[in-house]
Design a protein that fits this description.
This protein has helices spanning 13-24, 49-56, 61-65, 89-96, 105-113, 162-167, 235-243, 250-256, 287-290, 299-316, 322-352, 356-372, 375-378, and strands at 5-9, 28-32, 44-47, 74-77, 83-87, 101-104, 121-122, 127-131, 139-143, 146-150, 152-155, 175-186, 198-201, 205-211, 217-224, 263-269, 278-279, 282-284. The chain has a domain at 5-71 and 99-174 and 271-349: FAD/NAD(P)-binding domain, CATH 3.50.50.60. Helix 1 (13-24) runs parallel beside helix 10. It is built from 13 helices and 18 strands. The radius of gyration is 21 Å and the shape is globular. By secondary structure, it is an alpha/beta fold.
Length: 393
Amino acid sequence: MKQPRAVVIGAGVGGLTAAAALHRSGWAVTVLERAATLEPVGAAISLAPNAQRALDVIELGDEIRALAAWRSDGELRAPGGRRLARMDGAAAIGRFGGPTVLLHRATLMGLLASRLPGDRVRTGAAAELADPGTPGRPARVTAADEEFEAELVVAADGIHSAARHVLFPGHPGPRYAGFTTWRIVAPAPAPEQPFTPHETWGRGRFWGTQPLLDGRIYAYAAAFTPEGGRAPDDEKAELLRLFGDWHRPIPDVLTAVEPGDVLRHDIRHQTEPLPACHRGRTALLGDAAHAMAPTLGQGGNQAIEDAVVLTHHLTAANAADLPDALAAYSRDRLPRTMDIVRRSARSSRMTALSSAPATALRNAMLTAVSRLAPGLLLRGFDGIADWHPPGPR
């Protein structure tokens, strides 16, 4: 039988996972990436147990689990350092089947790319979806002066997806979520400056400090502010203005980084669902299908889930059944991902509170819940982190 062809638009986390899974299932895969190299966008990524189990499908889950830097407790704090809540690491592992693993995006991208033959990823190839295809006609993608025909196109071209606009031109797409974020990978702290992983919630602002396995620190911050803002000088200076008087190690982290090390991005999310995650022979994946706020840390995780669920349905079908396989993919993914989009939006509203009475009430509630019903905080991830990929366990 003729080997089925797939073109993947975009070599991000979701696109490379889809390419690796499809290649493993016998597809002839070509990945087209606009950027000149496979340099990852962003600093680090957290992979929850649901994404780790999805990566088991391409035999990558155990390598990811081995990169876990922290398996103990975490904390939620106020800007002055007062602990509002304790996150029980052992309880989370028991409830969801493992720890969340934080790793540099470059590490994950390298591991995913290693699952593909070296000639399958073409960089510097700005791809356009020319024809999404029909049951009786292959899809077509153009890149520079070359055209690709394929039985399947996977559009993993990100939050500003051009393919999404081709498939659903009347859909409004992602909109500004109300806040901007900064991300940093900082040098390892001095031995006399140990810290417990934490998030700190202020008034319309929050900060997180987390360890990486190699000793470096991943820090992230957010502020609720009008869209499109930029610092008048540099983003390190802006972070010092916003967070420089918060508890340690936050000022120490900021002191240790150079202005060019700070990444800033406005957050956009897609709260209006698409009619489907596919059309014709083209499937949307990751942010192209369901951009979400990062407050639950699930954006990349859901892209990984998309990839293995799509491959599962395609593997269970034959070539003539591809429309049914893509319809099954939409039925599986659309309700789940939109639920997580909405839950992420609700979570971000908790950190958006800016008045003194509202933040005081929020903090008091968090402290009471942590003391009286500590398991209640973990329940926010029920139905998310406990997910398993389809097929036999």
